Amino acid sequence: MGHVPVAWRDLVATAAVTGVLVGAYLVVPHPVVQYGAWLVVFAVWMAWFVLAGVEWLSNPDG
Asked: What pLDDT, in 10s, does the model give residues 8-17?
């Protein structure tokens, strides 16, 4: 698995979260859809957190 630059990881996560929330609040404003969107946001955040943690642990120089 190749190294993903931090800026790209942050940009992709931000774009995904923004797209999901815009879809849930502007395109289909229903409470069930909004709840599902927040679950997706949580999953994206956890994936970002795991990737950042793996990179941090694999880079001993900081």
From this structure: 889 999 999 9
